[in-house]
Structures are given as structure tokens and as C-alpha cells.
Amino acid sequence: MVGFQTKMKYAEQTRVLKMIPALENAEFARLGGLHRNTFINSPRLLDKHLRLKMMPRIRFAGQITGCEGYVESAAVGLIAGRMVACERLGIDMPLPPPTTAHGAILSHITGGAEAETFQPMNVNFGLFPDIETKERGREKKKAQAQRALNDMAKWLGFFNGLQRVA
Predict the structure, then answer these.
(1) Which residues, at least 6 apart from 161, have a Cβ–Cβ distance to it below 8 Å?
(2) DSSP reduced 3-state for 56
(3) Per-residue model confidence as pLDDT tens digits over 81-134
(4) Which residue, 65, 80, 101, 153, shows the most beta carbons closer than 10 Å to its own?
(5) 58 pLDDT exceeds 90?
(6) Percentage, residues of the chain above pLDDT 70
């Protein structure tokens, strides 16, 4: 089962899973276990453009930077790719706004988190800058999401304005 991370021994996993109706006769090809992600201490080692501070010709992307999750890892890879392309073309690329998911995770891994206690993180509203609103809970999150969509559209407009090189 994808995402079934547990400290339970295999026999106990099998016993518990077979308690589920329709799985009592199931055979399991592979059971779950804990895994450990390998990641660097990005707030200490990387600059805002995902470059190694001590060797700026080296850039990191994806899970190794300390973002957690498939979508987040792909997003950081996309950002790094755009950064490399702009750098090669001599274009000063603006960072994604911290009010967006891309900008919030980038900010977290490149300095928003404490280097001494840095741990991988998924994108969550706690990484976003606060928003001026009287709303709370779900309504506040809707306001943050709308702000993110607006700010992301503006940021993407920068790339839409670039001339394509053949």
C-alpha cells in the first residue's frame, strides 16, 4: 500500500489489514515500513536561488532540498530549471512570491526555516505570510488561496513576456 508507513512488524500488519472486510483472504506482496528521507540543510547551505553558497555553480532541486512530497519536489525542480534557464540567458529572474505555494516552500528551504532544527516540510498555510483579513478558518484559507492565484498569475506574466529563443 503506497504511503503505509508504520513501525508495526510485518505479521502484525498482515493481521490488522486482514481484519478489513474483503481483505481477509488477501495476500500482500509488500508491506509498509518507515523510511528516512535524505536531505541537506538547505537554509544553511543554499542561497535564495537554490545554489550552494560555497560553490554557486552547483544548484539543488527536489526532495534533497528538504521539501516533502511529490508535488513540492516537482515544484522545486521546476523553479530550479527556470532559474538555470534564466541564468544561462542572462535574465534576472524574480523569485516566486512568498504568498504562493512555490514561493512559500522556496522561502522555507532557503532561509525561512531555522537551520539548527531544519526538517523537510510539505507546503501548508503556516508557511504563507499572514493575510490582512477578518476571516478565520476556512474563509481565511480561501482568501490566502485567492491571493496566491493572483500573485502567481503576475509572476508567470514575467515569463510570458520573454521572447522565445529558437
Answers:
(1) none
(2) strand
(3) 999 999 999 999 999 999 999 999 999 999 889 999 999 999 999 999 999 888
(4) 65
(5) yes
(6) 93
3-state secondary structure of 67: strand
Predicted local distance difference test score (pLDDT) of residue 5: 66
- Which residue is listed with cell 483472504? 25
The answer to whether the CB of 16 falls within 8 A of the CB of 8 is: yes
Residue with cell 498569475: 153
Mean pLDDT of 31-47: 86
Q: Name residue 85's amino acid.
A: A
Distance, CA of 110 to CA of 37 (rounded, Å):
18
State how far Cα 155 lies from the chain centre.
18
Please determine, looking at this structure, whether the domain spanning 38-160 carries the CATH number 3.50.50.60: yes
From-to residues of CATH 3.50.50.60 in the chain = 38-160
The strand pairing partners of 46, in sequence order, are: 52
Can you list the pairs that 45-48 forms with residues at least 24 positions away whose Cβ atoms lie under 8 Å?
A: 46/109, 46/110, 47/110, 48/95, 48/106, 48/110, 48/111
| Alpha carbon distance 144, 133 (integer Å) | 9
Q: Establish how many alpha carbons lie within 13 A of residue 76's alpha carbon, considering only the half-sphere containing its beta carbon.
A: 31
Residue 61 in 3-state DSSP?
coil
